[in-house]
């Protein structure tokens, strides 16, 4: 195998506002390095405010054979943002693709012929539309480690490339190849995180992933599309090993963020087992932990161990109104939310509720109902609310189907 120089660009402008470490890119970088390639991750929106100036210096410094474009966010998933840069009648959001296109156009102009391959969570939501919009021929849907390695080995043989699983590419028209099941590779997680991004993982929490997938059907959510509906769990011993290595090698890291779709799905067996092991190994004295949770399953024993292990939780709770929850096919109801809130309060768990107003089924009555419940459980020291007004509609979600069927009247 020929050693190639690979440049991975973290094309997330929102990093300037919220610093989240490019975890997916770092996993890929480490895999490719283990396979003998020379890989650099760069952030094109810094240090200069003009990304073209940064790109010139990045391209000169790295002189890559191939560029991987990491697209983590399409937008902020929020519909009413005061400072948003993209909007229309009644909505305003941050929309990042025009800025990503600017990067692509500049690379094409400055380094014509240099292959660019896209990937990332946001890319996986709408791969063909994004490839067309950016004017590039290839991308990876879902997990990027193995498909990117195979792309590097195959390039420029388009016939070979078009047969790689998970690849979306232009072949007469755009095609998306079947995705392969994900396999957590045992030796991939014990790596030194890219120090360029240490501010991110020392503040927003260092991401650790214990499983992939989500089997739920929340109408608006893209995560089952990104990670698949089937769960893939890591061995608990392996997760504990990773936490021990982080503890030894990353003195500045005090918070671990478990970046699962939801920590407590599909049931409490695996996640309770993991939390108990964390305590058995005394890792809760070294780190605090955070993750996203559903209001159900959530019981007293679980709340107790979360509290003891030092978890803070982000509670997915779209509305308090059962009629809205049901219409949007979530698996919990108001009673589950209030039960989780009560258990968090009794056990002193810090809880951020993440809500969406204006999903299908929302009326003035349901709005009033949610507001009443928010007043019953007001924000305080260990409870806060985050919300968006208006749900974003993404291709492939059941919300999208509903809107298309109702011709926008949903
Ligand atoms: C955990 C999480 C967070 C945590 C992160 C905590 C932390 N310390 O890391 C918090 C809560 C802070 C957060 C914040 C935000 N998030 Co978030 N987040 C997630 C979540 C659940 C997991 C992300 C993750 O780390 N996955 C694990 C890594 C390993 O996977 P990965 O990045 O996808 O990488 C793999 C593949 O995509 C691929 N790949 C990745 N890059 C590349 C590049 C190339 C070239 C190739 C070939 C392949 C490839 O290979 C990788 C390895 O297998 C995702 C949803 C999801 N299930 O993916 C949402 C998600 C990415 N977030 C989203 C959003 C909107 C945000 C915010 C904008 C929210 C807000 N309004 O503030 C911010 C953005 C912050 C930022 N600057 O990026 C959306 C993005 C969708 C969209 N519409 O754009 C998602 C999809 C959630 C959703 N339900 O819609 N987030
Ligand atoms: S909101 Fe949470 S539970 Fe629902 S589909 Fe998305 S990740 Fe799964």
Report on this structure:
By secondary structure, this protein is of the alpha/beta class. The chain folds into two domains: 5-176, 3-Layer(aba) Sandwich (Rossmann fold); 205-406, Aldolase class I (TIM Barrel), CATH 3.20.20.70. It contains 16 helices and 17 strands. A seven-stranded mixed beta sheet has the order 2-1-3-6-7-8-9, with helices on both faces. The protein has a six-stranded parallel beta sheet with strand order 10-13-14-15-16-17. Strands 4-5 form a two-stranded antiparallel sheet. It binds cobalamin and iron/sulfur cluster (SF4). Residues 12, 14-15, 18, 20-21, 23-25, 27-28, 68-70, 72-78, 117-122, 140, 143-145, 148, 204-205, 207, 209, 221-223, 226-227, 257, 259, 261 line the site of cobalamin.
């Amino acid at each position: 195998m020929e050693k190639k120089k690979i440049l991975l660009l973290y094309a997330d402008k929102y990093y300037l506002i919220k610093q989240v470490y490019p975890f997916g890119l770092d996993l890929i970088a480490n895999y490719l390095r283990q396979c003998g390639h020379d890989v650099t991750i760069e952030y094109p929106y810094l240090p200069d405010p003009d990304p073209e100036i940064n790109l010139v210096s990045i391209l000169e410094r790295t002189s890559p054979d191939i560029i991987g474009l990491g697209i983590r966010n399409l937008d902020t998933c929020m519909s009413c943002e005061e400072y948003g840069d993209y909007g229309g009648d009644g909505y305003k959001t941050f929309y990042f693709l025009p800025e990503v296109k600017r990067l692509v156009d500049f690379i094409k102009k400055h380094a014509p012929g240099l292959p660019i391959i896209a990937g990332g969570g946001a890319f996986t939501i709408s791969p063909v539309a994004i490839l067309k919009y950016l004017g590039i021929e290839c991308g990876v849907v879902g997990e990027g480690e193995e498909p990117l390695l195979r792309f590097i080995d195959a390039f420029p043989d388009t016939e070979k490339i078009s047969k790689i699983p998970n690849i979306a590419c232009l072949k007469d028209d755009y095609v998306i190849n079947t995705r392969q099941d994900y396999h957590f590779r045992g030796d991939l997680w014990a790596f030194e995180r890219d120090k360029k991004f240490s501010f991110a993982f020392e503040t927003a929490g260092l991401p650790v992933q214990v499983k992939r997938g989500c089997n739920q059907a929340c109408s608006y959510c893209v995560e089952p599309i990104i990670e698949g509906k089937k769960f893939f769990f890591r061995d608990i011993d392996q997760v504990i090993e990773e936490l021990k290595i982080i503890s030894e090698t990353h003195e500045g890291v005090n918070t671990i963020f478990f970046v699962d779709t939801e920590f407590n799905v599909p049931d409490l067996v695996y996640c309770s087992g993991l939390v108990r092991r964390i305590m058995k190994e005394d890792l809760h004295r070294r780190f605090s932990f955070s993750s996203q949770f559903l209001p159900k399953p959530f019981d007293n024993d679980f709340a107790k161990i979360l509290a003891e292990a030092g978890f803070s939780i982000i509670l997915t709770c779209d509305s308090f109104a059962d009629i809205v929850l049901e219409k949007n096919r979530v698996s919990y109801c108001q009673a589950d939310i209030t039960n989780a809130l009560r258990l968090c309060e009794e056990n002193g768990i810090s809880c951020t509720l993440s809500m969406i107003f204006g999903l299908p089924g929302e009326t003035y009555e349901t709005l009033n109902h949610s507001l009443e419940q928010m007043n019953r459980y007001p924000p305080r020291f260990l409870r806060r609310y985050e919300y968006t007004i208006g749900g974003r509609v993404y291709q492939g979600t059941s919300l999208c189907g509903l809107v298309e069927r109702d011709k926008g009247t949903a």
